[in-house]
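INTERNAL AUDIT FORM
Audit reference: QA-55
Scope: verify that the stored structure record matches its stored sequence.
Auditor: D.O.
Record contents follow.
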Amino acid sequence: METVVLRVAGMSCQMCVKHVARALEGVAGVSKVKVSLEEEHAVVTFDPAVTDTAEFKVAVAEAGYQIVD
């Protein structure tokens, strides 16, 4: 398992946090997600044999937000 911290742009409320968390939790291989509105990031623990961070960008974008490099 690996853990990454992703900066997420576009979150402005607690509902946004829920949308981002739900999107990331839906990616195959993800075991844990913690999203912080105040710090504008998501901490994701995942299995790199199953998925990679490119999938996180797609999932977050589909939810209406953006991962910033």
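Auditor finding: record pair retrieved intact. Residues 2-68 form a domain with the Alpha-Beta Plaits fold (CATH 3.30.70.100).
Action required: none
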